[in-house]
Amino acid sequence: MKRAFPFRLRLPIVAAPMFIITGPELVIAACKAGIIGAFPTMNCRTENELERWMSEIKIAVEHASASCAGYAVAPWAVNLVTHSTNTRLGEDLALVARYRPPIVITALGSPRPVMETVRNYGGIVIADVINISLARKAAEAGVDGIACVSAGAGGHTGHLSPFAFLSAVREFFDGWLTVGGGISDGAGVAGAIAAGADLIYMGTRFLATEECRAVPAYKRMVIECGPDDLIVSAAVTGTPGSWLKPSLKACGIDPDSLGGSRPRDYAPSDEAYKRWRDIWACGQGLQVIRSIEPVATVVDRLEREYAIARDRFYRLNGEIVIHDPNSHR
């Protein structure tokens, strides 16, 4: 039987880790607002910088928790690329052991390299996967949770419907399920929870926030564009990703002539940072983003939307009578 999630949350949301543009400011703001804040360790160019970030986040979240008079301050998380090309994994994992983030999210590789370290201090491991085969491997590795990155997600994206993905993984996994892919409002959160998710990944929704490190032009593009302005291609990083067409055009790249994929390489390098700095990722949920706001304001709105969707569900459930063929009239 599945255990209860060990952390109190205002809403079952993870401010998903976004390459380059998630910094301590966004993580801390998310945790203070009552949702999980997460960042990729690769956002730090050096181990010294990563240690500064972890220390800053840990101290800020602990201080906020001690002084919180309202809803619970949520835990923070780090995202580790466990692919063999990440030459810095060992050093990053040593800092994880020292600063003990409550949640570690693995991506682009097996979660096995981090399991012992995180379990030793009582943390939980969630494996970020894009298909059912990888979900099975993560379950076999003994992870606590699986994040089903589905069609519509920004950055490195999946191809499966969130509903189909959740249903399939729940057949063989009884841990905590996170789902992401085009969910950017409270109604989407409620729908995913009704479909079997425990947590919802939201990256794009927090891209145009004051605390996000995206440059102003990137945020404006998110506000001005819609789902039709996106293209999914493996030509940028070697893994299918969802990209804003106007950012490709600004780099002199024709979105309709991207060609095939490039070799996969997830080592932290200047060339990798440049690709993501100049070509901007985004998910299909950008349509609801109308302005640049603080994270706290976004979470307030999500809570109202979630409550409206929840109340609608209960109202409809009371109005619809489902006939039981085994009942006697």
Strand and helix layout:
Layout: E1 13-15, H1 24-33, E2 36-40, H2 47-67, E3 76-81, H3 89-99, E4 103-107, H4 112-120, E5 124-129, H5 132-141, E6 145-149, E7 155-156, H6 162-170, E8 176-180, H7 186-194, E9 199-202, H8 216-224, E10 230-233, E11 241-244, H9 245-250, H10 270-278, H11 295-319
Parallel strand pairs: 1-2, 1-9, 2-3, 3-4, 4-5, 5-6, 6-8, 8-9
Antiparallel strand pairs: 7-11, 10-11
Helix pairs in contact: 1-2, 1-11, 2-3, 3-4, 7-11
Would you write up a description of this structure?
The chain has 329 residues and is α/β, with parallel strands linked by helices. It has a single domain (13-215, 284-319), classed as Aldolase class I (TIM Barrel), CATH 3.20.20. Helix content is 39%, strand content 15%. The protein is built from 11 helices and 11 strands. The protein has helices spanning 24-33, 47-67, 89-99, 112-120, 132-141, 162-170, 186-194, 216-224, 245-250, 270-278, 295-319; strands at residues 13-15, 36-40, 76-81, 103-107, 124-129, 145-149, 155-156, 176-180, 199-202, 230-233, 241-244. Helix 2 links the parallel strand 2 and strand 3. Helix 2 packs parallel to helix 3 and helix 7 packs across helix 11 (295-319). It is globular, with a radius of gyration of 20 Å. The model has no long low-confidence stretch (mean pLDDT 89). It is an enzyme of class 1 (oxidoreductase). GO terms for molecular function: nitronate monooxygenase activity. Belongs to the nitronate monooxygenase family. NMO class I subfamily. This is Nitronate monooxygenase.
**Individual helix count:** 11
Overall average residue pLDDT: 89
Biggest sheet, strands in spatial order?
Answer: 1-2-3-4-5-6-8-9
Count of the domains = 1
- Outline, from the CA principal axes? globular
Helix content: 25-40%
Poorly predicted parts: none
Q: What is the total tally of β strands?
A: 11
CATH topology: TIM Barrel
Category by helix and strand content: alpha/beta
The portion of residues forming beta strands comes to: 5-15%
CATH architecture: Alpha-Beta Barrel
The separation of the N and C termini measures: 37 Å
CATH class descriptor? Alpha Beta
- What is the CA-based Rg, rounded? 20 Å
Sheet having the most strands: 8 strands, parallel, barrel
Give the SSE string: EHEHEHEHEHEEHEHEHEEHHH
Q: What is the assigned CATH homologous superfamily?
A: Aldolase class I
